[in-house]
Design a protein that fits this description.
By secondary structure, the chain is mostly helical. It has helices at 18-49, 51-61, 64-91, 98-123. The longest helix has 32 residues, at 18-49.
């Protein structure tokens, strides 16, 4: 092993390509969806349990903070969906080159941003 090799462990100084950012965001959105699913399933169970439960969930969902959390979960879902479609397209053999990967990442970020803004307009 060469002990003279440069070692850079400061993550703030490493310049990652756009494909790395889309991949990392895809993983983060998956974790957010996994954790948020429990909360949403609880709310669904409570709302379907009785008429009073439905009214409680409806009143809870009217809060601006809850709307923000729901928008965050919906944003994670939309990003994860678009990035997942990109992976499926790449599995078919399209966009596997370096330039194709960069273009695909840019498209994922642009389409996700538009969908997330539209979801915010829909929720608010």
């Amino acid at each position: 092993m060469n002990s003279q090799r440069p070692v850079n462990l400061d993550l703030r100084t490493i310049k990652l390509p756009i494909t790395a950012y889309t991949s990392i965001l895809h993983r983060i959105s998956g974790v957010i969806l996994f954790l948020g699913l429990a909360v949403l399933l609880y709310a669904l169970d409570k709302s379907l349990g009785s008429e009073e439960g439905f009214e409680q969930v409806k009143a809870f969902m009217a809060s601006p903070l809850v709307k923000l959390v729901v928008w965050g979960l919906l944003s994670a879902l939309l990003y994860h969906l678009v990035a997942g479609l990109r992976h499926l397209i790449m599995d078919l053999g399209f966009g596997e080159t370096l330039q194709g990967g960069k273009l695909g990442s840019q498209i994922v970020l642009a389409v996700s941003a538009v969908l997330i803004v539209l979801a915010g307009v829909w929720i608010w």
